[in-house]
Amino acid sequence: MTTTLTRLRVPGAFLLGAVLLLGVAPLALSDFRLSLFAKYLCYAIVAVGVSLAWGRGGLMVLGQGVFFGLGGYAMAMHLKLTDAAATGEKLPDFMQLYGTSDALPWWWEPFANPFFALAMTVLLPMVVAGVLGFFIFRRRVKGAYFAILSQALAAALSIWLIGQQATTGGTNGLTDIQGFFGYSLDDPVNQRMVYFIIAAVLLLLMALARQLFVSRYGELLVAVRDSEERVRFLGYDPANVKLVAYVVAAGMAGLAGALFVPAVGIISPALIGIVPSIGFVIGAAVGGRASLVGAVLGAIAVAWAQSTLSDAFPAAWTYLQGLLFVLAVGFLPGGLASLWFVLRRRRTRPTPVIRTEEPVAVTVGETA
Amino acid sequence: MTVVLNQSFTGISIGAVLLLIALGLTLTFGQMGVINMAHGEFIMAGAYTTYVLQKSISSAGASLLVALPLAFLVAGAMGALLEWLLIRRLYTRPLDTLLVTWGVSLMLQQLARDVFGAPNVQTAAPDLLTGNISAGGVTFANNRLFILGLALLCVLGLTLVLRFTPLGRRIRAVVQNRDLAEVSGIATGQVDRITFFIGSGLAGVAGVALTLVGPIGPTMGTNYIVDAFLVVVVGGIGQLKGAVITAFALGVLQSVLEYSTTVSVAKVGVLVAIVAFLQWRPQGLYTLRTRSLA
Amino acid sequence: MSGFSISRRGLLAGASAVGASAALSACGAKTGTETSSGAGAKADTSGSTVKVGLLNSLSGTMAISEVTVHNALLLAVKEINAAGGVLGKKLKPISQDGASDWPTFAEKAEALIKDDKVVATFGCWTSASRKAVKPVFERYKSLLFYPVQYEGLEQSPYIFYIGATTNQQIVPALDYLKKQGLTRLYLVGSDYVFPRTANKIIKAYAKAKGMTVVGEDYAPLGSTEFSTITNKVRTAGADAVFNTLNGDSNVAFFKEYKSAGLTAKSLPVLSVSIAEEEVKSIGTQYLEGQLTAWNYYETTPGAANTKFVKAYQAAYGKDKPTSDPMEAAYISLYLWKEMVEKAGSFDVAKVKAASDGILLDAPEGKVTVDGATQHVYKTARIGKVGSDGLIEEVWNSGKPIKPDPYLKGYSWAASLS
Q1: A30: which chain C residues are within 8 Å (Cβ-Cβ)?
Q2: Which of B92, B274, B290 is facing A368, going by the closest CB pair?
Q3: pTM for this structure?
Q4: Domain ranges in chain A?
């Protein structure tokens, strides 16, 4: 009986999630709240990747903004081009205002093709991550170096985008997106459709990540996190193991960015720089980086709290936010998800257990 | 020719600012491995110390001189408190200190907003430091010379402390081999706290100097934090000379690129150069040789 | 136990049914077809109060400037309520924090329109935030009153532009510089839309009117390192610097400028984003004698302004300066009130129709709403920073200038849009 229960726990939870996301939320939430929720789910998709790369792989991916942005811009460029074509213009609106030339830049041209653009939302981040990761992990750059390097890249990309106003929209980013593959985003019905797509993608990616977690590869990844040297001595190449996690996480962030565009109607450098990149991992850290559900719920909860509490108490919210990071990361390294395990253990066993059940990224001695 | 000389001085003065903001980090990050994102807010604390002092000491020159040691104490005390409250619990998880101190930095920024208001505040610079010296067509801004001097003085002081004092010996011992230091009777916890005090204090001193060239406001720390980390990372962990060379090299690179292209391109260029450099030498310019495998 | 697993299967079937049906029903309007459903957000005017939305950054980097605008808006709401409200209804201000983040602005705009059902929204500062909310206001056919000078080239049917457009600030400033014989300009700006567009206009003007642009440099927003730019400015042989830097960068720029030995006498700087509040945070030590271009100063003469300054300082503190964007924000509420009362209704279409010709004796002088462009006739003013930190007017355009956001009335600007 217990085995049946255990066997059903994961599909059961998955099902419950599916019912909540695809059934309850659309019925319970107004159009506006649902579109906000769609935005939070985009952050949750990033968190799935973060959970894989950071929670399981110990890679502190502090540059997810880069991949989110690449995916977002790839999608937004296509949508801007179709918007322009729909009104009979050759160039997107901002290029007519700020541009210096009447011709579309060559690197915009292929994005007019929907299949190319869609593929790029995932492939572009993955290729960039692949190239970066290939060199970074081979050279055994890790720990703090990797984190700071990621931050530097996020800063560089956002400054570069801002500087190229004529072709990227500069600080404004790409705004005022009207249609989504022929469907008008003005129509609440289509907004709902976008929500369903995002929710379905999130569920799908969670299932995929879960399979990765329990696969042989997942175990290897955790082994690399906990003791890279030993894995190397066993004959595996840790660089490749990490590379896969990094590239998959980047692809997920790219997809999240691409879905963010129709959900919110904007992509801008403000979503790419250092601060948003930290934001992408914070949610996962608070919820529980190594636990898939914890990371996803954490990302949603932090985003929700951000937009709800910051109006009512802008100052108090900032303190609360800071305190939350300090307490959750500092004192509950497994995140809020581990709280559940700690409490459950307390209930089932008479003696309190200090050790948390979920493994935690411990990176002793990486700074030498 | 004068252009080249002027730009060289500009590069050196950018480097001096970088050095000053990164110096404290060479201790807390370089020696102790703590990624303290609140370092920028300790710089801010130093700047606000200058501002508060000017309200009671009207002479700009005198207040600046008093502010230097006072900011060192204020920021240092904040750092030591942070170490005692949080960081000492996280030495086994250096990456988590990044997120925890990020939270601390958010709270400190809001605190500054609540105490001093959201807008920037102004401090007056002493007349001596707003002028310049002209020699052979090259203009040396006095405030930049002051910052250069201050940065070099801090490097000298720090070197002397680390090399020749019993405290410095203990700090080095803890960095090189914590366990061995501990069994040799060094109170490593205490050494950590003092190291953090000095490192954060230096951020405070940087804050005082920055009032001469930049804005003073709740978010000023965020302007400098990543640059500061990059200097230490490129320079190599635990190496003062690495940080010095890196700061000036980045300063000169930045000014050359700025002059020949645009500021945005220069900024991106410097960041990309750093990423490429770390591919070539992932441990930075200089590394502390240890027997650790990692 | 098998019953347990069946019930789970039942859930699965239920969930997929709900999901599939929802997805199937989700075949809404195609692009290009007009939808009426978007305008489903009706403002609520049924009670004895109506809600007005205030959308400013109360946190983040822009809070420095936007909090003062927010204060001015609240002051106007309070005054209007004390005088009996609008059409007999009291105003209830709903503040939303844009948090200096453009997507957040769009989200909050939607919250104001759909959740709070506000009758009109006042706020935004940066062009990027305005661009982000523009589609939201257009989608729900709700009104935004935008209080800041901006780069022009925009005319949304659902935005009233209460700040100056380029022909009411930048063009008169260029006229002034030309008249002073300062014809060789160096352009320094932050790297975003307003400075880049402004400089495009300046270059077109210079080309047509015999002025020379000897250099052009942009610094990333928030940049605080200006030694190279100052070096370039010093050696370029310019007569004046046209400064479109924003925020923190100004502090660093002027500190560098002074230590490079440049002064208002040797090489004057004309700034378009430095108002009284910024003067305070940079310091008169660095700014004395430098020029600014606006439509309003705290020192602008007139009874309306005396009343405004007095009321603002009574509410927020004696040492608090008033500035151009604050004044524009303050009058935007009064202009909206006049429009509503003329229309006799809060209805957006009627308010828009009633807007043309609305006249107000504002602190900045007489202003008139131009219904065609939904901009405002404004008097251009050049000021000089005094030793007391206030800005004294040295020149004005004499009469309010007709707004021309696309510079259609200027032949030299033909190539711009």
Answers
A1: 114
A2: B290
A3: 0.89
A4: 12-272
